[in-house]
What we know:
The structure holds 2 protein chains of 2 kinds. Chain A is an all-beta fold. Helix content of chain A is about 0%, strand content about 50%. In chain A, strands 2, 4, 5, 6, 9, 10 and 11 form a 7-stranded mixed sheet that branches. Chain A has a 4-stranded antiparallel sheet with strand order 1-3-8-7, with no helix packed on it. In chain A, a hairpin with a 5-residue loop joins strand 7 (about 65-70) and strand 8. Chain A is globular. In chain B, strands 2, 4, 5, 9, 10 and 11 form a 6-stranded mixed sheet that branches. In chain B, strand 7 (about 60-65) and strand 8 form a beta hairpin.
Amino acid sequence: NAGVTQTPKFQVLKTGQSMTLQCAQDMNHNSMYWYRQDPGMGLRLIYYSASEGTTDKGEVPNGYNVSRLNKREFSLRLESAAPSQTSVYFCASSETDMRNSPLHFGNGTRLTVT
Amino acid sequence: RKEVEQDPGPFNVPEGATVAFNCTYSNSASQSFFWYRQDCRKEPKLLMSVYSSGNEDGRFTAQLNRASQYISLLIRDSKLSDSATYLCVVNVRTGFQKLVFGTGTRLLVSP
């Protein structure tokens, strides 16, 4: 089992460019999440999908869109990248969105916007 | 006040030492608690959940104090491989699994 797979691992964008971060999990988990991690701050939730067919905003959704393509895949799109979106992005999944369902994270995507 | 606060460290300890980290949380409605471990430039991984009665997993012991709103992690007989950042994570369920992550406490174990 690969667990949670994210692509790409690294990306450099110019301001205004768009890109999609891909995430797939093979654990048959219902819930999937996108977080960003910045120095001096805890991981912050961008968007989540409690189950296939649903998506909702998290703490910092502005500038992002998501698609829950199927149960396995949850993508994050930056339509017009800004330097403030330079960060490390983590996709995660959990069996359910219930409180004791631990998160499993992907390896992360390091994004730099110049 | 941050929802979850941790001492960023770093905590520098020799191999074999015992070290403890605390984490405070502000929302008294918080329902579940976790410690995650994050190695440098890697993804966070669940270390252990924290139960009301306290729980132990090998050299690691987690405690919860609801009255004072803090959780702790004790590591006994520290190993070089314990060097990492330890993230305190608190779940406040408001219709979905809302996990709030602390900024982490960095531990450096030296020979």
